[in-house]
């Protein structure tokens, strides 16, 4: 076997010799990566819809129910950076395939679960293998599409999948739970994984390396513990309050360990996360974009789902269908903005503008009431949110991996996934607390009764939407200050073996 000589556009100060970037099968590779990414993203929301049915079937308590969600989030969020670095060290193809097979196996165990403990263990397994799979998929995209014009299209499509997957998960979860069984929410992953696995084996070239892989063990241990503490701390804040001793211990401990991790990375010879990946302004601002988006998007999916089901009386399937205009807006903007608008106005304008459009959509949602209509109050808001977030997310995905050398592509991809995961954890805790406080304040100042309780829910939703609006506006300002307005440069291809 020989090393291929197909040339992609190199990262700065690197030769493209012996590296494969854009190539004949690239669009099929994108399809494979998109299927795998959809499977991982779906899992964040598809299980939520099925939880009540699973709880009734397996007989676990309301207090334990959160562990089905938290178990996945903890494993996924804390291991992402390790998963990304492993894909850099041992090959993205290998890591991708191991992640796929493991995720499918964990899903099969979850679908066949006969107890609460078995279900949670399966969810933790999904998180572990998802932490291998998600960074490998994005980094494979990064080193495969190295021609600037095609790169914009590819990241647009991938961004659409990543952004719309949560809403699709609500629809799929509702359909499977209502028409089949909650177990099919887990079993459906076997179909996604099978398609992606066949494509990966047939299409992905084998990575070649001339250097012995080295892993930053101290950095790995410290950052894994730090991310675990932060994600778990915010999870406890939602259920036990912000002043709870253990909540504070995990949050403060996680922050201290994160600071220690940064210090370690400046001292070790082979850092887990080379600081050059984060300190580049385009990449740093892109990570921040996805972090802010993770906080704000939580309000859309959770509180709007509650509103449509509890206040308007929609079924799970109808709720999922109601989110489809947002999916359409995301797909439209994700696939057109990076190739048409980004080269003309630059990423700063695209991302900041996307945040402001999304903020307008979120502000529109603050006008909902007990009997407002879908067409007048929800539909326009969802379209604006989809258009704004889709363009911003696909641009951020492209910027987060801009100009990285192939040996850093995995950890750069993991960092953007980590930003999104931690942002979602903060959004869950922060906005849930704000919503609960708004409902309590309303009830304490009004005559108790069914009407007051119903209106207190509306107050909790609209208060959360106002906060999410402010978060998106702050995101627009931060991006406007921090992000350079230069179009992101492509990454280099990676060394691979010829077939």
Instruction: Give the termini separation.
Output: 7 Å
Helix coverage percent of residues?
over 70%
CATH topology of the largest domain: Growth Hormone, Chain: A
- Biggest pleated sheet: none
Name the structural class.
mainly alpha
Q: How many helical stretches?
A: 16
Tally of separate domains: 2
Q: What is the N-to-C order of secondary-structure elements (H for helix, E for strand)?
A: HHHHHHHHHHHHHHHH
Question: What is the mean pLDDT?
Answer: 85
Low-confidence stretches: 1-18
CATH level 1 class label of the largest domain: Mainly Alpha
What portion of residues belong to β-strands? under 5%
- Report the count of strand segments: 0
Q: Architecture of the largest domain in CATH?
A: Up-down Bundle
Q: What is the CATH superfamily label of the largest domain? A: MFS general substrate transporter like domains
Description:
The structure is a single chain. It contains 16 helices and no strands. The protein is mainly alpha-helical and 499 residues long. The chain has two domains: 392 residues, Up-down Bundle (Growth Hormone, Chain: A); 56 residues. Helix 2 packs antiparallel against helix 7, helix 3 runs antiparallel to helix 4 and helix 7 packs antiparallel against helix 8. The longest helix has 36 residues.
In a nutshell, what does this entry contain?
This protein has about 500 residues and is an all-alpha fold. About 80% of the residues lie in helices and about 0% in strands.
Which key phrases capture this entry?
single chain, 2 domains, disordered N terminus, Growth Hormone, Chain: A, 16 helices, mainly alpha, 499 residues
């Amino acid at each position: 076997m020989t090393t291929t000589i197909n040339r992609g556009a190199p990262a700065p100060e690197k030769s493209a010799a012996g590296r494969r970037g854009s190539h004949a099968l690239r669009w099929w590779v994108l399809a494979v990566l998109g299927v795998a990414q959809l499977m991982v993203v779906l899992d964040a929301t598809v299980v939520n819809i099925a939880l009540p049915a699973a709880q009734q079937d397996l007989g676990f308590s309301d207090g334990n129910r959160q562990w089905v969600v938290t178990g996945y989030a903890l494993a996924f969020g804390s291991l992402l950076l390790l998963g990304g670095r492993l894909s850099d060290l041992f090959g993205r193809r290998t890591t991708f395939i191991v992640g796929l097979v493991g995720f499918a196996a964990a899903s099969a165990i979850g679908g066949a679960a006969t107890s609460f403990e078995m279900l949670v263990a399966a969810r933790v397994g999904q998180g572990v293998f998802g932490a291998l799979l998600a960074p490998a998929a994005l980094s494979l995209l990064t080193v495969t599409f190295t021609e600037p014009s095609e790169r914009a299209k590819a990241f647009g499509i991938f961004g659409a999948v990543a952004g719309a997957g949560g809403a699709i998960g609500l629809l799929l979860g509702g359909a499977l739970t209502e028409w089949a069984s909650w177990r099919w929410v887990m079993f459906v992953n076997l179909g996604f994984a099978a398609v992606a696995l066949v494509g990966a084996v047939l299409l992905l070239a084998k990575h070649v390396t001339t250097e012995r892989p080295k892993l930053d063990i101290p950095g790995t241990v410290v950052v894994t513990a730090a991310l675990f503490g932060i994600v778990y701390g915010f999870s406890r804040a939602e259920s036990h309050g912000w002043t709870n001793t253990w909540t504070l211990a995990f949050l403060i401990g996680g922050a201290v360990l994160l600071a220690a991790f940064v210090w370690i990375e400046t001292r070790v010879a082979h850092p887990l996360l080379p600081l050059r990946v984060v300190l580049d302004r385009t990449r740093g601002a892109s990570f921040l974009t996805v972090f802010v988006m993770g906080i704000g998007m939580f309000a859309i999916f959770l509180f709007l789902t509650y509103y449509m089901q509890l206040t308007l009386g929609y079924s799970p399937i109808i709720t999922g269908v109601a989110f489809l205009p947002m999916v359409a807006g995301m797909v439209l903007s994700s696939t057109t903005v990076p190739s048409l608008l980004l080269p003309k106005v630059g990423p700063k304008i695209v991302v900041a503008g996307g945040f402001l459009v999304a903020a307008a959509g979120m502000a529109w949602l603050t006008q909902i009431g007990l009997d407002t209509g879908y067409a007048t109050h929800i539909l326009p808001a969802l379209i604006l949110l989809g258009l704004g977030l889709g363009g911003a997310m696909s641009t951020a995905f492209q910027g987060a991996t801009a100009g990285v050398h192939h040996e850093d592509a995995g950890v750069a991809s993991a960092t953007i996934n980590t930003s999104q995961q931690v942002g979602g954890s903060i959004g869950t805790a922060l906005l849930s607390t704000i919503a609960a406080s708004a409902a309590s304040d309303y009830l304490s100042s009004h005559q108790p009764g069914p009407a007051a309780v119903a209106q207190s829910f509306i107050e909790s939703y609209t208060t959360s939407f106002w906060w999410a609006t402010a978060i998106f506006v702050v995101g627009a300002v931060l991006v406007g200050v921090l992000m350079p307005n230069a179009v992101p440069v492509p990454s280099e291809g990676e060394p691979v073996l010829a077939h």
